[in-house]
Design a protein that fits this description.
It is a single chain. The protein is about 35% helix and about 15% strand. It is of the alpha/beta class. The chain folds into 2 domains: about 150 residues, Aspartate Aminotransferase, domain 1 (Alpha-Beta Complex); about 260 residues, 3-Layer(aba) Sandwich (Aspartate Aminotransferase, domain 2), CATH 3.40.640. Strands 4-12-11-10-7-5-6 form a 7-stranded mixed β-sheet, with helices on both faces. The chain has a 4-stranded mixed β-sheet with strand order 1-2-3-15. The chain has a 3-stranded antiparallel β-sheet with strand order 13-14-16, with helices on one face. Strand 2 and strand 3 form a beta hairpin. The longest helix has 21 residues. The radius of gyration is 22 Å and the shape is globular. Bound molecules: pyridoxal-5'-phosphate. Pyridoxal-5'-phosphate binds next to helix 6.
Amino acid sequence: MGIIRRFQVQSPGMIDLEFDKAHIWHPYTSMQAPLPVFPVVSADGVTIELEDGRRLIDGMASWWSVIHGYQNPELNSAIKKQIDRMSHVMFGGLTHEPAIELCRLLVNLTPAPLQQVFISDSGSVAVEVAIKMAKQYWMSKGQYKKNKLLSLRGAYHGDTFAAMSVCDPVTGMHELFRGILPQNYFAERPSCRFGSPCTEEDLHSIRSLLETHHKDIAALILEPIVQGAGGMWFYSAEYLLKARQLCDEFDVLLIADEIATGFGRTGKLFACEHADIAPDIMCIGKAMTGGYMSLAATLCNSRISEGISGDGGVLMHGPTFMANPLACAASCASIRLLLESDWKSRIETIEKQLGQELAPCLQEESVQDVRVLGAIGVVEMHEAVNLHEAQQFFVDEGVWIRPFGKLVYIMPPYIIEAEELQQLSQSMHKFTRRRLHRK
Ligand SMILES: *Cc1c(COP(=O)(O)O)cnc(C)c1O
């Protein structure tokens, strides 16, 4: 009974930051020395409202996901409608319209060979399932040695163990979990930039790894065109095309992780379209529900599904909240909204404006590189940014931008207006100058 008494009920409407600090983990934080967090009471359109009434223009789209902005009326109503039917029902032995409708959309929109869908609840799990599919496929062919993965330096594929094992070995958590993570192969980060050709030299690393180890490699896993949380790097479409051809040449499967790039972010519905290729397995997540709920999926072609299912085989995965009807309904509404919108021209407009407004940052001494693709703008600094100071700086500027490492970057909701976007890019530019003054 003592335990219960210790809790104090807060007066309604007050966010208890002391409790948060003492009891709640935030992403990648210490419980001893957590960075300050800002209390949010609501969000609408592209603005996040803090408890003290300050309004921030959101440059992050809540980690790539809120593409239509917050409180979209159509998404709100789709979810409310679904709540009145059922919020959840198990997916083992049962099925429902929101899941079927969603998978029909996904099969139609993704590269044509992808025909089977496994729905899960987060991006990392979608990557786990993709890896499991690839390994189970080769097991079904009696090729038990083909069980390693080939990944790229600079990659990010999630935080669960199999996903971590294909993240960049340096910026990923390989050192921390040395001896625990499965060992995989890593090719050099593609150095050929997006919009540039790709030479034989650029392909040397991936080709020689495949030549030497293809008998041990189940699949190449990569983020098509945009490497996200591993360094915000945009690489040549020709590299992606050649990587697909190398996979065919060496009989290695290709897994495309489109969790960050999917649903229009790079200017194509899926980034694979920049190279006009189809992977054998594809992961999607993040923007899939317009940022309303956690939902992800792994798609595969019939070669994979028939292989795994041959001789009475089954795919050994089944999350409790698989195909949650509320999340599926949100996702259907979000995808329909995207398709009915003029998303392509919106992204082009954002790309053009970001290109013009971020280019002057290159003149600053603190800045190493500026790159823009689709609705993604990146300013790479020479030195790592102090996250605590940077967050406070941007909040004072009235924007929400959260850098990591040397990277100050934005990927705003697609509905952002020109003046709001300008406020984001001006704050970024101001930030790069401020660093210089402080030296
Ligand atoms: C965010 C991300 C993941 C992990 O997704 P979670 O939903 O955070 O588990 C995997 N791959 C890529 C490319 C991502 O950007």
